[in-house]
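From: lab user (bench 3)
To: helpdesk
Subject: output format question, protein + cobalamin

Hello, I'm new to running complex predictions and I'm not sure whether the block I got back is the full result or only part of it. Here's what I submitted:
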Amino acid sequence: MSLMSTIAPPQDITFMNLTVLNDRHSHLDKPQPVRLLLINPRPPDSFWSFRWAMDRIMVHERTPNPPLGLATLAGLCPDHWQVTIVDEVIEATPLRPHADIVGVCGMGVQHPRQRELLEYYRRQGYFTVAGGSFASLCPESLEGLADCVVAGEAEYIWPQFCADYEAQRHQPLYVERGEVDMSDVPVPRFDLLDLSRYGTASLQFSRGCPYQCEFCDIIVMFGRKPRTKTPAQIGRELDALRAQGARSAFFVDDNLIGNKKVAKELLRYLVDYQKRHGYPFKFGTEASLNLAEDPELLGLFRDAGFAWVFLGIETPDVASLKASGKTQNTKTDLLEAVRTIYAYGIDIFAGFIIGFDNDTVEAFDRQYRFIVDAGIQVAMVGLLTALPRTPLYQRLEAEGRVRHEVMAGDNTRARTNVLPKNMSYNQMIAGYKDLYRRLFSDHGIACRIRNKTRHLRLPSGQGENEPLGTQLRLLWRTLLRGIWPGGPTRWWRFAGSLCCPPRLWPLVVTDWVRGLSMRHYVQRHFAPTPNRVWRRAADAMGQLRRRFGPAFEQGSVTATLDAVDDAPNLVLTLNGDIDEEFLHETRRRLRRMLRDRRVRLSLRIECIKTNQHELLSQILEHLVQYRDQVRVYLHESLRDQLSAHALHQVIHFGLAS
Ligand code: B12
Ligand code: SF4
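Helpdesk reply: Thanks, we reran it on our side. This is the complete output you should expect:
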């Protein structure tokens, strides 16, 4: 059944903003600007957030990558539209934006927040549009949540929507059923992003991949014939990025070398571009492992300034590679391939998968040995996940092995929707957590650095590097906040990993930061919460209860402790006449309690005296730094009273009423 027929026709819905638009058109010759707000919803914490590094080490950056999809969409809007992009990872979401349309993107992992934002803005009377990866893969999951869903590549259907919106004949669903010619993709509106807040800028050369891995949704969404932009288009994008001060750029292609001939043309162009402009960029990208088989390609990567490449290695087990259709990885010795790439001065990040049908409990050791021998620090080991519409999903569904209760979004969360074949689900989860614990021990981090620096000839960073002052600050913070707290064992291992040519030392320091950052993620999400953390949360609650007994007895304050993701979550409700001293004391105790990143707080504010708004605002402002540890549920009537800045950051829209 077509989704189009299941959504109510647009004329049944009336929108205030459309009426306004109508008036404008009837009174003026020139079309009035349509104000479009595009939001990248806050994703849950993941490996890719590198949260510890962003919070504790980096100077300006808040997150690795900008939302390129939104910048591209902005470039597709008519000239008279006024577009603003808000990336919730780095900035506040306006509660009452000056906008006619609010568009929200999202991957599967962002879907809960995407839904929350769409519901909120729709309730406020804004016209809402949903798009992005998840909407493209399963538009039906957004049905009824937004006034309009845009599924698939937007280059042709978004301009269609814009025209329809202005003519008041928009449809509830726009689906791209064919493929976009990449020469029709405009230069993304990089000027709408604050690139200084991101680890690296992003751009895209190609879509689609010629391979046929069973678990892959990329070929479902973008097809198997790589489509590419022209080198001149990329040149214009690089010019725009340079104008924004970007020094590092990530080609987000799923496989930059899907069409090797065209990739080489691009690389030659990049070599020339870098030379002409004094090597302004350090690049990174994703590619298939057959990169290692082509010395010409590798030389071009090096000369163009590619400092790293993300490879989908998945597993060293040939039987699993064959069974999952990843045959391109079986044609060469994997370790040799990795070292060949190192020899060209290119660092490697890689993806690995646990849970293939062939995997028994021995798979964990096999993966560990390979990752350590290969010296891959950024090793994204995920559990096999069946994404909707992939051949894997269809096969496992037929075999009754899809766990429908688990949402298949983030494969690095120690849960998956796949039931393994040759071990129990619990064995797989336990082995997976243990694998990560070993990989991100001090020993694991140091061994990988050693095994990498033995083979990596030199970093190819002709472009980039941070100014000396920034580098020194990063080094100082790493030593003080990362290495020193680890005690003598870590000092010793760190010193040992510096036994390599001094030109590799910046990479060694960076790898320690990456390793420690992933270790923090593992500790926060995979390690059982120690009893002392539970005790600390219980103590904080007990002390408040003892100190402010009457408030608890009257019911103006309640406090309970429950569990979220196996970690303690203090639920504090304020309702009515709250003692000012209580607020002061609460601030102090919460600060102490939340210092442990595993503890959560749910603050529900039903009602509070007007003269305490300022103090409460201060508390909320303070809680902003704890980000996803804190949820604030706020009564509608208080929204305009409290500090806008704080509210934007911590408010949980959905349940506040
Ligand atoms: C770059 C990237 C990232 C970056 C950052 C992404 C960002 N800030 O936007 C990083 C490295 C952080 C990342 C992380 C993850 N990613 Co990622 N990532 C990508 C990648 C390689 C490129 C995305 C991109 O920029 N494309 C270029 C732009 C131009 O295209 P686009 O996003 O498709 O946008 C087009 C349309 O969708 C549309 N559109 C986009 N937004 C909107 C909004 C509106 C309102 C409308 C109307 C239209 C619209 O217009 C655009 C032009 O056509 C994609 C693969 C891919 N090819 O899409 C995976 C991908 C999006 N990631 C994926 C996943 C699973 C993850 C992780 C969960 C992996 C993990 N296990 O940790 C994590 C999430 C971590 C987290 N909690 O944040 C999946 C998502 C699956 C899904 N369908 O939901 C993808 C598709 C990869 C895959 N093989 O499956 N990722
Ligand atoms: S090589 Fe990567 S992008 Fe290509 S089909 Fe396999 S998993 Fe998908």
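A quick orientation on your result: The two ends are 36 Å apart (CA to CA). Let us know if anything else is unclear.
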